[in-house]
Amino acid sequence: MLKKKKTEVYALGQHISMSADKARRVIDQIRGRSYEEALLILELMPYRACYPIFKLIYSAAANANYNMGSNEVNLLISKAEVHEGTTIKKLKPRARGRSYAIKRSTCHLTIVMKDISLEDKDVEINSLKKNLDGKNSSGGIWDKK
């Protein structure tokens, strides 16, 4: 039996202290792009959300290199998600003994990268497998699945 090789790796960033909407503005620009193109875009964008996303993409590429042995040239950002995290609540003292609530929002980032060179090999393996299945069956009544 042929063993299917894993083609996707991911990196998670949890409790990153920024608004989910601000992170989505940056994530939407890099979704579906190649690894090198995404890094170039993130370096040139003027937003504060770029740096944690840059680190996360770099980490996902390192995971791909370590786990699958893939090259950075073949990596593609297949999925990039932003979810709202917990809200940190603090109280700031104000005049006359009152307090003012400060809400600090956090978000969770998920970057999934796909190796396109390994995906091409899986397509070839699946096509060979279909050809072999067609030749080995005798066409009898018991061969139906």
From TrEMBL:
<keyword id="KW-0934">Plastid</keyword>
<dbReference type="InterPro" id="IPR036394">
    <property type="entry name" value="Ribosomal_uL22_sf"/>
</dbReference>
<comment type="similarity">
    <text>Belongs to the universal ribosomal protein uL22 family.</text>
</comment>
<dbReference type="Pfam" id="PF00237">
    <property type="entry name" value="Ribosomal_L22"/>
</dbReference>
<dbReference type="InterPro" id="IPR001063">
    <property type="entry name" value="Ribosomal_uL22"/>
</dbReference>
<keyword id="KW-0687">Ribonucleoprotein</keyword>
<dbReference type="GO" id="GO:0015934">
    <property type="term" value="C:large ribosomal subunit"/>
</dbReference>
<keyword id="KW-0699">rRNA-binding</keyword>
<keyword id="KW-0694">RNA-binding</keyword>
<dbReference type="GO" id="GO:0019843">
    <property type="term" value="F:rRNA binding"/>
</dbReference>
<dbReference type="InterPro" id="IPR005727">
    <property type="entry name" value="Ribosomal_uL22_bac/chlpt-type"/>
</dbReference>
<keyword id="KW-0150">Chloroplast</keyword>
<dbReference type="GO" id="GO:0009507">
    <property type="term" value="C:chloroplast"/>
</dbReference>
<dbReference type="GO" id="GO:0006412">
    <property type="term" value="P:translation"/>
</dbReference>
<dbReference type="InterPro" id="IPR047867">
    <property type="entry name" value="Ribosomal_uL22_bac/org-type"/>
</dbReference>
<comment type="function">
    <text>This protein binds specifically to 23S rRNA.</text>
</comment>
<dbReference type="GO" id="GO:0003735">
    <property type="term" value="F:structural constituent of ribosome"/>
</dbReference>
<dbReference type="InterPro" id="IPR018260">
    <property type="entry name" value="Ribosomal_uL22_CS"/>
</dbReference>
<protein>
    <recommendedName>
        <fullName>Large ribosomal subunit protein uL22c</fullName>
    </recommendedName>
</protein>
<comment type="function">
    <text>The globular domain of the protein is located near the polypeptide exit tunnel on the outside of the subunit, while an extended beta-hairpin is found that lines the wall of the exit tunnel in the center of the 70S ribosome.</text>
</comment>
<comment type="subunit">
    <text>Part of the 50S ribosomal subunit.</text>
</comment>
<keyword id="KW-0689">Ribosomal protein</keyword>
